[in-house]
């Protein structure tokens, strides 16, 4: 398939590479050129303007946030100039307000919008083992399913409304960050009675909490590994903000997310914005006066 | 081994039965007689007074809380009258303040105290598949290890100080209740955008949160299954209180536990004290005005 | 002075009337015509388009929120068409982000912007007894001081930057809503031990909390007076949102405001959006299962 | 009147001195002797044992907390040995659980218990300008009213049940500490936009919050005056604990008090336990990374 791919960040470059390996024609665009050159060596075609990607059969976008996505896809005129019937597979984490805005803009442009946010960090993007939630027109989804199968280990259908996939991503990230806070608080408590953090993590991740969320972040908190962030604290703050904002129009109180917001703001104020999200758990320990 | 077993509640009766099946001599005491009779039919010897249990080689206690344990083991004179060298295996969930009190009382009575709180609900107690954290004198632990192997699938050593096993239990329960609140909030959010609760639970328990804590409670919240409580909301409130109280002398802020406390109090005030702990998650959904 | 007055809501109409009484020429515009007619009877001149107000010496705006203010003052072209040197006295409660936007737009249009948010409800607007915080170019403030003296009992200078007056308003409203929550929680607690709510309010408002914030809202909570809202719960939620949003770019954690947000969302979800803000305090009592 | 006075701490010594000045016979007991000697010079009689105070017509106790009061009044045998018909005026801040315990112990001893907690710091104790809430047997209150008139500017009758006066004190302190947190958060927010803390405090304490709670603590927070504590942060933590504990059996959620508890624990963990309670507000500012 002829695919336009916009956004070759830490996730996007691995995903685009997998599409190339699977034999697809991939036209890439990225703001900075380093990642573009790497992919060209692997067989991709470099585009000069993001609008050229909308000349393919499918456009995949994997940009940082609402603002960047709006600027590059909509304000640039790229979407408006796309050929009718094109499918746009939006795979980034976006706000529900912006997804609504996208739904309207795509309807105007005659482009089919599929929201397909991904779950997993860089390593899973590279190995094609992401989980992918997907929502949009069913026929369009059927058409891109082979691409989703290349990118992920499993696709999770969430219906026709792109918002449904979008909110699933937001809610899951909120749960992930909650798990980090809960683990940090539990470690602050057990450490204060002399239990080694690593013993605690071994125990919980072997029993009630034997799941990736805890297995990835528990040991990082225990070992104070907050450098070399895969998922920065600042990004976590952004994601908690997406949850709070999504809840507002629907009047959904989110007391845990509120605690997360305040604790993340505190951590950012203290200079930890670029640390790994595990720093949120470490801060729960520090807040108790423990090292 | 000759074992005194005190407390045949929903957990204790399954545990005592397993010790009998394994060929041990089990002397049982319980406040109400129904469970005693059931176990006598399985080969147990009924005791008239809890103090008689302290004439065995090992006493196992599995009572409801601090107050009941203090009343039956200490205030009754049972502990004081025990023969020197006896091992007491305390398997209930108790406060750190009371474990400290027990440590002193056992030292005075010349009894070896092992804290060995268990993880798992009734079904795991019956099948001998509990997880057991254990802390106390190492020689005593070595002696009771065969019993722990009968009762649980795995023993998790936490050192010499009974407090270490006690705080592990308290912190893990706090994490479990946090997981229920987080799941409820996430469902309130996704439901408000039209995602089916069961779809959401399927997704999270197959991916980032593929762990017992979420697999047990997620579907209960999604299906509003809050009757027939294995773990009541009132008991959850007690356990969150144990965490908050344990944190106080050590100056450990626990903002998630504070939210849990308030939300559990609200639920109890609204008449849900005897509901399953899953009702905490359901309440997160109701708080947003959704059914 | 020749004054354009835009926004004759519950606050604006009393303020405009006072300017007329003080002998000023007042040109009024309002979306709905009822209030316009009332003021015309008192000597005001009715305008057909808000842009005509910008032909006066001073324009006062007192509109509902950011969106309405942007739509009527900026998007309509009114500001852009104003005569150079005009002073705009912005007296509504607006977000810091929008005040920043206004500062830029006014600079482009050559209009002097003064932020002068007011403190007090309708009755104080009518009696000219408002408190007014003011920030902007000092010469412009000096020129409008006679108007501020008509509208308020006292003006509180906050420097040159309109943001300073804006954030003062936002922070004070956050404190007011915090006072309502704190009073509600305290009443829930004392009522549960048999103290009459009115006795409690009499006591606190005669001693430590003998201040308008508590004297206005305390008795309302005690008597469950939540109809006939001067300040609706929905508006309170908006104002707490302004505080949270203002804190975000500066990394200011606001844990009390977060609690307020969740409790207000809950109240709105339960249908109390149009109740008086006192309903927040009443809900604190209801959350404890008390009537 | 012949009065036994137990507890000559920072509040008690001023109160006892006022009773002496008013012409009463005051028999004093205190753990440390410095304050006793000062009062003896003013005409008091020193007692060797607290039990001797119970030989007077009225005993006033003003001790630090539950534990000290229990130890000195009950466990020492003092109360049990008192002469029948004695009135005990308990003026300290105590838990509701302990007040209940006192009610029973006094009934057994035939002593009439009046709870009369005081509001105000040392200076008001010295000048006899305290506010006093009072609850107990009405005839007994009538008899001690002249003493209350010496000690305070006003007495606030709260009925027959000592718990009512006790919970009033607890709830009011919770509100006071909430006011400090709210002020600190508001200052963190306004300071982050460049408003001087002193300008902010001047404004709020002249308008909506023109009340002692804010006038005492607002300027202290603004000027970072946290030394020379009249009311320490550690004592504030104890008082918030009294509110949370009082709410528990009655199922009263207290989300603001929960936030206070966590923030106070954090401050104590960071070494501010002996600072003035104003340090709670200062910490709200520090949490945002501001000095």
CATH architecture of the largest domain in chain A: 3-Layer(aba) Sandwich
Mean pLDDT of chain A: 96
Write the element-wise H/E pattern of chain A from the N-terminal end onward: EHEHEEHEHEEHEHEHHHHHH
Distance between the termini of chain A: 54 Å
> What characteristic shape of chain A results from the CA principal axes?
elongated
Oligomer: homotetramer
Return the CATH class of the largest domain in chain A.
Alpha Beta
Report Rg of chain A: 20 Å
Trace the largest sheet of chain A across and list its strands.
3-2-1-4-5-6
- Report the helical percentage of chain A: 40-55%
In DSSP terms (H or I, runs of 4 or more residues), the helix count of chain A works out at 12
Q: Largest inter-chain interface?
A: A-B, 64 and 64 residues
Could you give me the name of the CATH homologous superfamily of the largest domain in chain A? NAD(P)-binding Rossmann-like Domain
Quick gist of this model?
The structure is a homotetramer of 291-residue chains. Chain A is an alpha/beta fold and 291 residues long.
What do you see in this structure?
Four copies of one chain form a homotetramer. Chain A is an alpha/beta fold. In chain A, helix 4 (96-109) runs antiparallel to helix 7, helix 7 runs parallel beside helix 12 (278-286) and helix 10 (233-247) runs antiparallel to helix 11 (255-269). The first copy, chain A, is 53% helix and 13% strand. The model of chain A has no long low-confidence stretch (mean pLDDT 96). The longest helix of chain A has 30 residues, at 162-191. Chain A starts with a strand and ends in a 5-residue tail after the last helix. Chain A is elongated. In chain A, the strands form two sheets. The first copy, chain A, has a six-stranded parallel sheet with strand order 3-2-1-4-5-6, with helices on both faces. Chain A has a three-stranded mixed sheet with strand order 7-8-9. Chain A has two domains: 2-160, Rossmann fold (3-Layer(aba) Sandwich), CATH 3.40.50; 166-286, Orthogonal Bundle (N-(1-d-carboxylethyl)-l-norvaline Dehydrogenase, domain 2). At the A-B interface, helix 7, helix 8, helix 9, helix 10 and helix 11 of A face helix 7, helix 8, helix 9, helix 10 and helix 11 of B.
């Amino acid at each position: 398939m002829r695919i336009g791919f916009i956004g070759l960040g830490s996730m996007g470059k691995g995903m685009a590479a997998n599409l190339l390996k699977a034999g697809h024609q991939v036209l890439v665009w990225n703001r900075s050129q380093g990642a573009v050159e790497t992919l060209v060596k692997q067989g991709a075609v470099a585009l000069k303007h993001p609008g050229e990607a909308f000349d393919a059969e499918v456009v995949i976008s994997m940009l940082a946030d609402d603002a960047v996505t709006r600027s590059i896809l909509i304000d640039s005129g790229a979407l408006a100039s796309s050929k009718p019937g094109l499918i746009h597979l939006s795979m980034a984490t976006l706000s529900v307000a912006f997804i609504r805005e996208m739904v309207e803009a795509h309807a105007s442009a005659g482009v089919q919008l599929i929201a397909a946010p991904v779950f997993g960090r860089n390593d899973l993007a590279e190995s094609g083992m992401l989980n992918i939630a997907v929502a949009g027109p069913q026929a369009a989804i059927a058409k891109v399913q082979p691409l989703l199968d290349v990118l992920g280990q499993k696709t999770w259908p969430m219906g026709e409304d792109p918002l449904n996939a979008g909110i699933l991503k937001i809610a899951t990230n909120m749960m992930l960050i909650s798990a980090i806070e809960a683990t940090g608080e539990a470690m602050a408590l057990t450490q204060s009675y002399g239990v080694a953090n690593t013993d605690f993590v071994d125990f919980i991740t072997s029993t009630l909490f034997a799941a990736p969320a805890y297995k990835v972040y528990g040991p990082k908190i225990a070992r104070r590994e907050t450098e070399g962030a895969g998922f920065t604290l600042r990004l976590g703050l952004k994601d908690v903000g997406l949850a709070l904002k999504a809840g507002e129009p629907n009047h959904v109180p989110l007391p845990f997310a509120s605690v997360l917001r305040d604790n993340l703001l505190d951590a950012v104020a203290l200079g930890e914005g670029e640390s790994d999200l595990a720093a949120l758990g470490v801060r729960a320990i520090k807040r108790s006066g423990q090292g």
